[in-house]
């Protein structure tokens, strides 16, 4: 198996090293793992692509490339340039430093990389490690992802149904903020919503008297939709969420069909 990996934390991020080890296990001794990751951190860029400017790509080592662009850019570079003659069988994005559950999905560059792979017709899985008080003192904060990542990916590849939809299925996996020994299992879960919290801005004055705004996330331990990804993560479960790039509110189409016959 030939696997392409990327992330949004950057080419030198510890989570990418964790993903490389997971991918190497999945690929097997006869397989190949290729890395095309952002040269610099790209957290929060979502599915952004460098449509109006070129990006530089540099080979750092055999099968290891850095691109001055977003995770979606990296996937495009990997598929259409680096691996143009030998396309990958699977694209993995992560392991992100922090969760990409609930509303974080809509901002995540990690998700953006997997989403782009799905638009290119390839199976793709995004992986993220929820962080919290129980992971802060671990020698490896990515312990849960490192321990269970390969098994979860194999499970998805084995159980995923045949998918012929125009917007191809991709997968979002979040590992809970607990040591590996405290993981309670794997749950299929919908994307949730944290209640009473959201992204916001925080002002700060520079020494020159100019106002700057920092974007800050909401409380990551806020109550979330029961049974959803974030809620299950906080209970110690690994969440697996099937996703598509189709943003249509399909539940509203029947109710609105008489308004626009």
UniProtKB/TrEMBL annotation:
Binds 1 divalent metal cation per subunit. The keyword Cytoplasm applies. GO terms for cellular component: cytoplasm. Transmembrane segments: none annotated. Its main location: cytoplasm. It is an enzyme of class 3 (hydrolase). GO terms for molecular function: 3'-nucleotidase activity; 5'-nucleotidase activity; exopolyphosphatase activity; metal ion binding; nucleotide binding. InterPro entries: SurE, SurE-like_Pase/nucleotidase, SurE-like_sf. It catalyses: a ribonucleoside 5'-phosphate + H2O = a ribonucleoside + phosphate. Its EC number is 3.1.3.5. A divalent metal cation binds at residues 8-9, 43, 96. NCBIfam families: PRK00346.1-4, PRK13931.1, surE. This is 5'-nucleotidase SurE. It comes from Salipiger pallidus.
């Amino acid at each position: 198996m030939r696997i392409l990996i990327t992330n949004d934390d950057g080419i030198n991020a510890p989570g990418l090293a964790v993903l490389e080890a997971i991918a190497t296990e999945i690929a097997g001794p006869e397989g190949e793992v290729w890395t095309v990751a952002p040269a610099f951190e790209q957290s929060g860029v979502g599915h952004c692509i460098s449509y109006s400017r070129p990006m530089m790509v540099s080979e750092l080592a055999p099968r290891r490339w850095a691109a001055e662009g977003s995770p979606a850019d990296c996937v495009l570079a990997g598929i259409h340039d680096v691996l143009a003659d030998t396309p990958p069988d699977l694209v993995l994005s992560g392991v992100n430093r922090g969760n990409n559950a609930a509303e974080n999905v809509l901002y995540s560059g990690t998700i953006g990389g997997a989403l782009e792979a799905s638009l290119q017709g390839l199976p793709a899985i995004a992986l993220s490690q929820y962080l919290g008080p129980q992971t802060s003192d671990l020698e490896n904060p990515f312990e849960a992802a490192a321990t269970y990542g390969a098994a979860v990916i194999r499970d998805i590849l084995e159980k995923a149904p045949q998918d012929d939809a125009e917007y191809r299925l991709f997968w979002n996996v979040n590992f809970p903020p607990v040591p590996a020994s405290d993981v309670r299992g794997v749950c299929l879960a919908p994307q949730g919503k944290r209640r009473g919290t959201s992204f916001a801005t925080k002002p700060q004055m520079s020494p020159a008297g100019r106002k700057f705004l920092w974007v800050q996330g909401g409380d990551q331990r806020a109550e979330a939709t029961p049974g959803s990804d974030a809620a299950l993560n906080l209970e110690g479960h690994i969440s697996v969420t099937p996703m598509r790039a189709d943003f249509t509110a399909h539940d509203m189409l029947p109710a609105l069909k008489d308004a626009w016959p």
